[in-house]
Design goal:
heterodimer, A: Alpha-Beta Plaits, 5-stranded antiparallel β-sheet, 4 helices, 5 strands, 44% helix, B: 204 residues, elongated, Rnp2-like_sf (chain B), tRNA processing (chain B), Pop8-like_dom (chain B), ribonuclease P RNA binding (chain B)
Amino acid sequence: MVRFKNRFLLFHIHYEGTPNCAPPPIDTTLHGGHISSVLKESILLNFGDFGAGIAATSTGVKYFSPYTSTGIIRCSRDHYQMVWAALTFVTTLRGRNVLFRVVHVGGTIKGVQQEAMELDKKLLNELETTGVITASQTDLLLEKARTEIEAVDASGKGGQKSLHLPM
Amino acid sequence: MPVSSQEQISGIISNQIDFQSQISQQAGRKGCLDEFVPEVRASLHDELQATMSAASPAKRDRSPSQPSLDATHPSKKPLHATPTASKPPSGTKFTVSGFPFQYLRLRLVTADDHSFDELHFRNAINHALREAFGIVGAGHHVDLLKFDQSGQEGLIRTPYDSGPTLRAALTLLREYQSKELRIDVLDCSPYLFTVAHNSRNWAP
């Protein structure tokens, strides 16, 4: 049986700071589909038809939270460095200047899930202390994050939109 | 090395020296190599001595049975005397390294027989790399060394490792500036003189 080996990239988005050094406004309409289309464009621009062909079927955004701006991308093991590089080359997202930082790379979904939950918890607590969201919202979001992260399936079924090149 | 095999080897070498001295004697009998026969035997003798001393410096005094060469050379030093310095066996040194460049001879063929100048030709190669392999692919270093506008033939150079990528990109190119075209690779070699001239096409 041929095993499809994956790599899961846990990433965090940094937005360009506002003039008053206030935390950037949260865009709650942002979802995994936006991330995957931006990633697909970056692969096509930087690695050409060859890169787009390799990455299309195996790359997908499995989880994304607009509150913490963190997400999980799944890609094949052989080309994860190309996907990582293309993600780093992304500079704008829906008109805002951004920086993608890959925080953790894992071969199994379990390790990445744990890291994702810890990162989300840390960031949500920061949001609570800076007063962007209330305590009750934090608990709700934590619960939501946990269910969504645990729903990420290693085999690729479920989760959010995967890369889909229009034919 | 165990002694027995050494003696075997020296036995084989001494047999060879006998054989070769016989041949040189025969050649000497024909009269043309008379003056060379002693030198040939002496040089073979020297080589045997050198390999023996290099292989086992401790076993010099236990030298195996020598061929009867010294009977014809009374002036030669006796074999049992230890040489003053062990001569390293002579050999040849090769240096092997990779190729720095790959040279390709290309021909541009357009559907409507349009003729491009060398700037457009170089740009078409860049376009091919960019389409197939993106910005990162277009970074592969390509030099245009020669271009013949009438025949639309060019000679390019690229680092050896970029060869397969460049060749794939050139194969996939099908249009440039809204003109249908293709690029044929006429010749490809790591040596420039191979692609520069072809003895089949050369006519004085």
